[in-house]
Amino acid sequence: MNLGRFDCATGIINILYSDETGLIVRTSTTKDMLFVDKLQKENSNAVGFIQKTVWEKYVWGGDRNFVVLIAEINNDAVGYVLITPAVSAYKYAKIQQIVIRNDARRMYYGKALLHVCKELDRKSTRLNSSHTDISRM
To answer: Are 27 and 7 in contact (CB under 8 A)?
Structure first.
């Protein structure tokens, strides 16, 4: 499946959301691994643990089209979301993990991540039900 601008395996950062406060949501690259790993470890009781090899292979390696989006405010990463896109018609994308730094909670950064997740879900669901290329949407 071609994820278009949501694809993390390309190594290209795509800005998917921005607002007037300086908050952006973007696709991740392998350079975000340290940030993602740190937040995952700090919040392992809430979100569990996913091995580094899974991140490298399925997200940035492109084997399974997993998507990791990063929320940043003023070039400071504050959170991430790991999404597995829908794989067949009438299925939905699934949020596997969503984490916001402790000092950045209750500031609507998670809401921005969820906004982009909804957009990805709408496009991947449409892709799987109509067999069109998501990069054209």
So the answer is: yes
